[in-house]
Amino acid sequence: MASTSTPRYTVPGISVEDGAKLIAALSVRLHALNDLHLTLKHVHWNVVGPHFIAVHEMLDPQVDRVRAMADDVAERISALGGVPKGTPGALVAERTWDDYSIGRADAIAHLGALDVVYTGVIEGYRAAIDKVGKFDPATEDILIEQVRDLDQFQWFVRAHLESAQGTLSTGDASTEVDAARAAAE
């Protein structure tokens, strides 16, 4: 039952020690992606109001792409000699963020909260890109491709929150609850 974060082997040209650093960075991204796809589905199921269908239908392609991203990250962990942990228990035990806390709510409130969620995921990606780029351009490339899609998904969310003057209805909210409340007002 392999569960150590230090691999016994890794890809050619990368030391086992650097492979372990890559695996650690990717493991957090895997948890973030698994959490994000579940959060997106949660919103999909719990969104209501006049923007329901637009948001409901916008989210499924995001869910599908985020799930594919998780698969790519998990397979890279395996290729590096690591063990991807895709269980709910590992996600909850190892994540550094709280559960999404908005239940049944207006579409705009959910989008305000999702904006904050996407910001957290994307900031984590950018930090991971900086970290893995020092060891492995192939892993860095995977993360760069994925953050481009995540940036686009956040743009889709923000398009619903943006005024014609270019300001976000969420203002400077830093929590999903505050962002949901500000967006709904």
TrEMBL record:
PROSITE patterns: DPS_1 (PS00818). InterPro entries: DPS_DNA-bd (IPR002177), DPS_DNA-bd_CS (IPR023188), Ferritin-like (IPR012347), Ferritin-like_SF (IPR009078), Ferritin_DPS_dom (IPR008331). SUPFAM superfamilies: Ferritin-like. It comes from the Bacteria. GO terms for molecular function: ferric iron binding; oxidoreductase activity, acting on metal ions. Residues 23-163 form the Ferritin/DPS domain. Belongs to the Dps family. This is DNA starvation/stationary phase protection protein. It comes from Streptomyces silvensis.
